Amino acid sequence: MIPYGRQSISHEDLAAVEAVLRSDWLTQGPAVSRFEAAVADYVGARHAVAVNSATSALHIACAALGVGPGSRVWTVPNTFVASANCARYCGAEVGFVDIDARSYCIDVADLARRLQAARAVDALPDVLVSVDFAGQPCDYAAIADLKREYGFRLIEDASHAIGATLAGARIGALPVADITVFSFHPVKIVTSAEGGMLLTADADLAAAARRLRSHGIERDPARLTQPDQGGWYYEQQELGWNYRITDLQAALGASQIARIDAFLERRRALAQRYDEALADLPLQRPWQRPGALSAYHLYPIVLRDADQRRQVYERLREAGIGVQVHYLPVHLQPYYRALGFAPGQFPVAEWYAERTLSLPLYADLTEAAQDCVIAAMREALK
Ligand SMILES: *Cc1c(COP(=O)(O)O)cnc(C)c1O
C-alpha cells in the first residue's frame, strides 16, 4: 500500500530519541528548547513555544489572544476540524469564509464581503484562522490590508506549510500573523510523532503560550505578580492545561529539522513530476501563487465531478494507492450542522470537496512508486 503521506525516519532520528531515553530528562528538559530554537532559527521567528499537538497550539493561540464566550472566530471550511474547534474550546462562535477555486485557500474577496456585512450589524470577527492549505501560503498581502481596516487578529494555521515562503519570507515569520501554528504529525513535512508549535514576534503572547501549555503557571521572575519567595516559588496566574511536548518528541523534531530542506526539495521535485506526468489529463492540478513557494504537504487534484472522483478513488484504492480527500467541509460536519450551518453556504468549498483527491506525496516516496500512481491515474481516467 502506498499511503498519501508518511514520515521519513533516519538513523540520526533514532539516535536522538535514544539519547533522550538514556538521559535525565524525558519531558520538560533541554530537547524542548533545542527544538524551539531550531524551528525559530529556521523560519526566522522571534519566539517559538512547542506543545504536544497543533490542536493544542491552536487552542492556546485563541486563549492567548483573549478569545472567549462572546468572541467570534472565522476560518475556512476547507481545513481539518481543529482550525475551527480551537474557537469552540474557548466558548467562541465560529464563522466561515469560502475558499477560492484555484488555491483552495481563503477567498479574500469573500472575506472582504463578509467583513463589510459583519461591520454593518456590529458582528466583526475578533480572530481569523487562515489555513495555508496543502502548503500553499494564503494571499497575505490582501489579508494584511483587511486586517488593518477591520482590526481582527490573525492566527495562521500553517500545519501544512513549514518551509513555505511568500515574497521571500518564510512562513512562521510573516508580520501579518499574530501567531503561526505548525503541526508535527507524521504525515506533515517534519514530525515529532505528535507535536505542534506556536511562533510569534510578540514576547507577551509567547509568555502567555508558555504559561498556558503548563497549567497557567508562571516561573519567570520578571512576570510574577507577587514577591518572589525563592527558587521553589511559582504562580498559577490563569487556567491553563498540560499541553507539554516530551523530550523524546522534541529530540525527534529537532533531528528532523536538520533535514527539512532535503524534505522540501524532494516534495517539490515529486510535485513537479506529477505536474508534468498529469499535464494532459482532464483534471485541475495545484496552482502556484505568484511569489510563493509551497511546502507541498499535499498534492490535491480536482476531478470532473463527484461520480468521477468516487470511481478514481475506488480504482486507486484497489491498486493499493492510498488517495485521500482533504477536506470534507468543516461546516457540514454533524457537530457544526447542529450549530446551524447547512449545505450551500460555502459553495466553492463544497464544489471542491466533492471533486478532490490528494495523491501520495512524501519525502520517501520513490519515483517507481510515484510512476505506479501516475499509471493508475491514467488508467482510471481512460
Ligand atoms: C494536522 C492539522 C491540524 C492538527 O494537527 P495535530 O498536530 O494533529 O493536532 C490542524 N490544522 C490543520 C490544517 C492540519 O492539517
Structure in words:
This protein is an alpha/beta fold and 382 residues long. 39% of the residues lie in helices and 13% in strands. It contains 13 helices and 14 strands. The protein has helices at 11-21, 30-43, 54-64, 82-89, 108-120, 140-150, 203-213, 247-257, 260-277, 306-318, 334-337, 347-355, 367-380, and strands at 47-51, 72-75, 93-96, 127-131, 153-157, 165-166, 169-170, 179-183, 196-200, 217-218, 235-236, 292-293, 299-302, 356-359. Strands 1-9-8-5-4-2-3 form a seven-stranded mixed sheet, sandwiched between helices. Helix 6 (140-150) links the parallel strand 4 (127-131) and strand 5. The chain is globular, with a radius of gyration of 21 Å. The structure holds pyridoxal-5'-phosphate. The site of pyridoxal-5'-phosphate has 14 residues, from helix 3 and helix 4.
Structural features:
binds pyridoxal-5'-phosphate, single chain, alpha/beta, 39% helix, 2 domains, three-stranded antiparallel sheet, Aspartate Aminotransferase, domain 1
Number of helices: 13
Helix and strand sequence: HHEHEHEHEHEEEEEHEEHHEEHHHEH
Number of structural domains: 2
- What characteristic shape results from the CA principal axes? globular
CATH homology-level superfamily of the largest domain: Type I PLP-dependent aspartate aminotransferase-like (Major domain)
- Low-confidence residue ranges: none
Radius of gyration using CA atoms only: 21 Å
CATH topology descriptor of the largest domain: Aspartate Aminotransferase, domain 2
Structural class, judged by helices and strands? Answer: alpha/beta
Main sheet makeup = 7 strands, mixed
CATH structural architecture of the largest domain? 3-Layer(aba) Sandwich
Overall pLDDT confidence: 98
Cofactors, ions, other ligands: pyridoxal-5'-phosphate
Instruction: State the strand order across the main sheet.
Output: 1-9-8-5-4-2-3
The CATH C-level name of the largest domain is Alpha Beta
Distance between the termini: 23 Å
The level of helicity is 25-40%
Strand content: 5-15%
| Number of E-state strands | 14
